[in-house]
User: Fold these one by one.
Assistant:
Number 1:
Amino acid sequence: MQRTARLLALIAGLCACALATQALAQKYPARPVKIMVGFSAGGPVDVVARIIGDRLGAKLGQPFVVENRAGANGMIAAEGVAHADADGYTVLACNSSTITLNKTLFKDIRYDPQADFAPLTTVVSAPLVLVVNPENPKTADIKTVADLVAAAKAAPGALAYGSGGNGNLAHLAMELLSQRAGIRMIHVPYRGGAASEVGILAQEVLAVFDPLSAVPLVKAGKLRALAVSSAERLPSLPDVPTVAEAGYPGFDLSFWVGFFMPKATPAPILETLHREIVTAARDPAVAEKLGSQGVVSVLSPADYATKIAKETKELAEVVAAANIKAE
């Protein structure tokens, strides 16, 4: 009898938990939700967060308020979300570096990107474009990745490439290519991607993994695109191969923006926000707005977690092999 009573009590408890969880999901959100952004207003992460936040607010009936806590490559906002109450009312919008790079580059990081967060989905992905200057006599004949690799092998450690700074994704992309191709080039760090773009136009460096701002320059003939860093070709440059297609299988490195919540957030809330963010990103009107920041790209939480683990491991190996130090 006692065993039966305990069993019935256990079943009743489980039913009560299930009903409570269902009720939680049904009434969520019951108050405004905060979206933490670790970068300044007007930047890619902020723009994406506000576009998605506006749509979530309209759909779910409560404001999704963006709060900018800029600094430390997104670490201030990420730490705040990692240690926030896991009640569904604090969301992190961040870029790939905050999740896949900071733990490798910075010793004073106070959050664990994989242990402290539940991934929801990416929203946009912005590949880098490997470019040279066709007006530079030193690169006038370089028209493919193979040409660039051959030139670098002919002059080991003599050719210079630019990036937006030490530890910048463009820096890591070129180091990854160099390691895969067995070449050595000189790294010239600039203060941001825009400055490195100016550097290649001024013929200060021979090659750059440029952000999507390179696309108009490529179409105008000011820069020549050799490849894109993503696994798939860029719709705006359909004739430009991927680095993988150019001879380096598995090469896939892009700047992405995605959403996370504290790890212990109830599953129904995670499922609700994942579903609504994906639905919003796929809406044609929203996708058009997001297009200014990259290619719309959504993932299941499981696929997102796999992507993060792969990129984190790969980038840590690149950083270690190249002895890269954060600025």
Number 2:
Amino acid sequence: MNKKKTAKLISINLLLFIFFTVFIELLLGKWRKYLKSDFNYVQIPALIKDSVLKYDGRWIYSSSEPFPIVYSRDKSGYRSKDPYSQKKIILTIGGSTTDNRFVTDGETWQDYLDKKITDFDFINGGVDGQSSYGHTKSIINWHSKALNNKNVSVIIFYIGINDIRILNNKLTDYDYAQSPQIYLKNLLKDNSFFVRRTLKLRNKLYYYFNYIKDIEDLINSHSARKLEFLDKGIRYELKEEIKLSSYPTYKVIFSNLIKASKHYFPESRIIIIQQQIPGCRFINKKITYDRHPYQSNYCLDLAKLFNMQDLVVSDFAFNDRVMIFPMYLKEILKDNDVYDYVHTNSKGSKRIGEYIESIISK
């Protein structure tokens, strides 16, 4: 066979391979929905889908023994969701304190509530690092598409610390879509038939051989507490009068979160829990003792943030289907309920569950 015929044969087979690949992608992938309308793929930064992660959390809990953690999310990106349940849903939304990355499956505060309030299926829609800006995007581009809004009875927002950056007019990669490389990776991971199957096979092999993935990024973002909380702390008082005009960017973002929730889930009750962390001991809405052993503006910033949230809800006259609960004014979480200064262990997660149970059971 001469070179021309060989080249021609290779070209024909290559074209047939490309045609076959494109045909299979269009048939079995998730691309067809984009052909029917304007291309509008929106990713939720830091969201994990269809994965089971297993790792040893001994460095987090300062344990000399292995500390196995299993962290699983379904195809839609949820934890603690019963795929066979016919119950009404209570959707929980927040950042890492809702996600509970280092609390193993079965011990998150959503799991606790599943066992205690059996009329509902509590599902975990928390995403590490996400703020109210990201929660709004998630309501529009994730939750409203993955869930039947008529099945969602209640939406619980467990929020606080991550919104501080918005109060200070800062947004991060956790809010915006990330780099073009990450965008392309997520685009293929979420929509490509071949990429999804390849990744699924890779994950099976990965865990079969019990290979320990590089977890430096997790260690850097979640580390064990090095110092104990101060006994009393430094007293701070919010002396400025908080008005709606005080933080206009946050006013818009937080009100948009509630409006989006009411628009996409019109029949759902909305509960906003202003989260508590042990390092901030609030006397009232304006006076707090910052007990962190390092210089921190967390507590005073949280006072500003929560006062703004109160004003936004009151100003927009949202009906009684929007309720705020100031958990931060109570000492629900104790020092030993967090493994660093913010994130809860299983004991702390149970305390959060007990607090929410007391609200829902009223």
Number 3:
Amino acid sequence: MLAFTRKPNSAALAFIIAGSVWFVVGTIYGLFSAIHLVSPEFFDNIPALVFGRTRAIHVNTVLYGFVGSLLIGLGMYYTPALLKRRIWSEQLGWLSFMFWTVTVLSGPITFSMGMSQGREYTEYLWIFDVSLVLAVLTMVVNMVMTILRRKENLLYVSVWYFTATFLWVGGSYFLGNVMWNPSTGALPGILDSIFHWFWGHVLPGLLLTPMAVGVAYFVIPRITRTPLYSHTLSILGFWTLVVFYSHIGGHHIVQAPMPNWLKMISAVDSMFMFLPVIIVIVNLWMTWRGKGGRIFGDPAGKWIALGLFWYLIVGAQGSLQSLPEMQVITHFNNWTVGHAHIAILGFSGFLAIGGLWHILPMITRRQLYSKKLVEVQFGLVMIGLTGFFIVLTIAGLIQGESWYNGEVIYRVLPELDAYMVLRAALGMFIIFGAFIGLYNVIMTIKKGKPIDSVEHN
């Protein structure tokens, strides 16, 4: 095995660098998709850039590549640190990185060639599904063995969230992606929609959410230099997340001919999902009570704080829009797209980036190259995402109300032109923020001042 694969925290750093790269790639493909909504014929002579291909690349690269890779890298650092033990096998961590990255990289390559399984959030070809599952299973082994060999008796809640993520995903990815049917990755009829949206919500809810919350629980007490407000609340939030979240995917197909009992479970559990959201937010807000200056004065702190704010908005929206009466207006239009953006970039993305700027100096033993660039990146992404949310919410309400009142789709489209132009323009803020973040990561690794040679502050 190559010597660098045995260096402590090298696999975690590899995930973090990859996540920073995928942020750039994913947002660029998002811009390609946005351009299509302004000028549908713009890329007509370039098959690899038609909307049906660029959107799949954008969504999967952001979900698994940007947010997923960053959060995994952060967890691979803080889990052993909290257990006061090096990760069980650095080489196995690199194997997880290889399998995960092969899957993410396959997206821009195969999707641009028109090769996918054609199910939203489950587009990866079967062989790359296998690669992702292998990444998850190797991570399970690594984390469980690290826990068994720990020196710290108490399992802090961040360890619970990070390790459980891979246990949950290891079981659910196989089901949601219908991996026992490699030729199509799908089932016939309405049954496929049920399996499909089981994974469609487990992906943000039991892959990204627990890792993002784990980062917040790790970073906030460190920035405020205070103990966590309530360990009991943190465990309650953990168990309510898994109890309620695994059943809510059906609210995406409430209008479909699926069993009424499943619709009821999906709607009820969706409403109860606001409980773990409130528990996490209250617990962390109480932890930093009276320490707001430290939170908002820290390069990572403001990312975490705003990420929790987005979590509150996402939780409220997600519960309410699961109700059939509200779905009549908000489903199948840009309202849902706006909700998805604040869920992935606003909540889990902000927490991932905040964790990045807090943990990167700890891994590299170097100060951040530029705290000013962190501030600039925060401003750009915040402007872009807030604008996205407002613009897409308004566009969605225009669509929903028009359709509800009997207007046909093609007559509504001209009313959306200005909003689609704004969407594309606002996306540029996020792209610039992604480039600035990648530059700051690279320069921190290469030219950041060694922490040991700098006075402690």
Number 4:
Amino acid sequence: MPVGYRIGIELASINQTYLIILSFIIGCVVVLAEPAVHVLNQQVESITNGEVTRRQMMIALSIGVGLSIGLSIIRIIYDFSLLYYLIPGYLLSLGMSFYVPKLYTAIAFDSGGVASGPLTSSFILPMAIGACVALKGETEVLSLAFGIVAMVAMTPLITIQMLGFRAVVSQRSRSKAAMRRILAADDEQIIYFK
């Protein structure tokens, strides 16, 4: 926790654009160190029979957590309510759940809980507190630095369901291509049976 806090203070002392970019990168990398994520990825690959690979899950989770940390730092810099992220984000994730297979929705909600594990609360949260103290002062910590765990739990819902949406779209395009090949066959050809 002291290391995360110190990193947050040091990152906030540089350019704010670099702070956002580095926070995104740190968020992407933190997922790699989360032990429960590796277990989840292995189970998902097994349950889906390789349709969703470990690599796809890891990329989706990394991007999701990286986005949540980067967006949280933007919120700290520009001082606005967390609800501007959470309400549209959860509406989007709930809306997507009607269009993706139920398996992806279940995986997405599990991954949201797994991604917001012990490393997030013991490293990322103190990092955000440090950045908030350096940028806005100690009085703003309670209103700006918290909510990161909620963001980390939300963004994987969206990124994993996007995997499901991509699977639905690719399945539909494959079936349309197969139907075109069937219909494009020369039906006027005479077949002789011997």
